[in-house]
Structure formats: C-alpha cells, structure tokens
Design a protein that fits this description.
With 204 residues, the chain is of the alpha/beta class. The protein is 29% helix and 25% strand. Bound molecules: oxaloacetate ion and magnesium ion. It is an enzyme of class 4 (lyase).
Length: 204
C-alpha cells in the first residue's frame, strides 16, 4: 500500500475533499517540520487530567494516531515520557485539543504532535477516559479509523468512508497543478488558467 496519505499536504487534501475537513487553525505542530499521518484512535479525555493518555498508549495499535479531546485545557497533557512509551509501541503520533509540554524533546525524538498549545502545567491522573467514540477535536468530529494528516499548515481529518475518493482527487489535483506550473513558467497568467471572469482578463 502506497498511502501515508500518498505524500499529500493538508492543504491539498482540504481542497480535494470539497468539504470542511480542516481543524481549527490554532491546532498546530508542536515543533517545526512535524508531519502526522495515520488512522485515528480516539480518546475522550478531560481537561487537566492525562490518565486517559497513559492508558491509550497501551491500547492503541502500531501506526495509530492518538486523537484526544482534552477540553482545550492549558495543561501539559503529554510530554517526553509518554512520547518514549508511544514510540516503543509504534504509535504514529498525537493530535490533541489541549496543551502538551517537552516540545524540544519531542522534536529530538522525531515524534509528531499537533496540539492547541504548548503548556507546562502538570495534570491530575484520575479520569481513565473513553476510547473508540467519536470525539470533537479542533471543532471537527473525528471517529475511530478516520485519516489524520497534519503538516506545517494545519491538520485535516478525513472520514474513513471518504479516504479513497479524497486521495484519488488529490492525486488528480497535484498532476493538474504540475501542468499549471509549466504554463506559468512559460509566461501564462493565473487569471487565465483559472478562467476568472472576462473583465479581470483584459490585457493590461
Ligand atoms: O505528566 C505526564 O504524565 C506527562 C509528562 O510530563 C510526560 O509524558 O513526560
Ligand atoms: Mg514529563
């Protein structure tokens, strides 16, 4: 299987989907250059508590992305210890609506994390969480098995039933844009390529 989302950027995928699959732009990579690709293992947590994350690391499968609703709370729900534990189990990365800490260590380990913010405040360890339910992260409902792709521009969540269609459409878009780049380098204008209205295309 070619996947890891066929190398497509989050921006290409949101255009290809033709639907609002993009998360709140405040959900960002915890360190520059992080790229996240994988199927969602969903975790309903609660703000300021990270017991659910310690348990999720033991339940998720290799290649999964942990997708966590932590109530957008300004706590460090995840850090270096959980990163090392997750990597040892082959977990692909973390998407969390909440804060994380130890971003420099996550970068050094190459573990991709996308979060609402970096935050150093510690957490309780009381709420065991709920796994395998639809969760709301970055304003988008994400179900188990949905495809998550995150990069420097943001994050998309593609419903599992839509993945094949969106990836095929993304392949077509990239091929078409390559043809457009050739024409632009040969001197054509974007307003002609995209066939904007005639008034805008008058010779100047
Ligand atoms: O408090 C926690 O469990 C989170 C943390 O700092 C770590 O994973 O290093
Ligand atoms: Mg720590």
């Amino acid at each position: 299987m070619t996947d890891p989302a066929r190398g497509h950027s989050a921006a290409t995928l949101v255009e290809a989907a033709g639907a609002p699959i993009d998360l709140d732009p405040e959900i960002r990579a915890a360190w520059p250059g992080a790229r996240l690709v994988g199927r969602a293992f969903t975790v309903q947590g609660t703000g300021g508590d990270n017991l659910a994350l310690h348990l999720a690391v033991t339940r998720a499968e290799s290649g999964d992305v942990l997708v966590v609703d932590a109530g957008a709370a300004p706590h460090g729900h995840w850090g270096e210890v959980l990163t090392v534990a997750a990597q040892a189990r082959g977990i692909a990365g973390l998407l969390i609506d909440g804060g994380v800490r130890d971003s420099a260590e996550m970068a050094a380990l190459g573990f991709s994390v996308f979060s609402r913010r970096n935050a150093i405040r510690g957490t309780r360890k009381d709420f065991p969480g709920i796994f395998g339910r639809t969760v709301r992260v970055g304003g988008v409902l994400i179900s188990p098995g949905d495809l998550i792709v995150g990069d420097a521009d943001g994050v998309v969540a593609i419903p599992s039933a839509q993945v094949a269609r969106v990836l095929d459409h993304a392949d077509e878009r990239v091929a078409q844009e390559q043809r457009h780049f050739e024409r632009l380098r040969a001197g054509e204008r974007t307003i002609d390529l995209y066939e904007f209205g005639a008034p805008y295309r008058q010779e100047v």
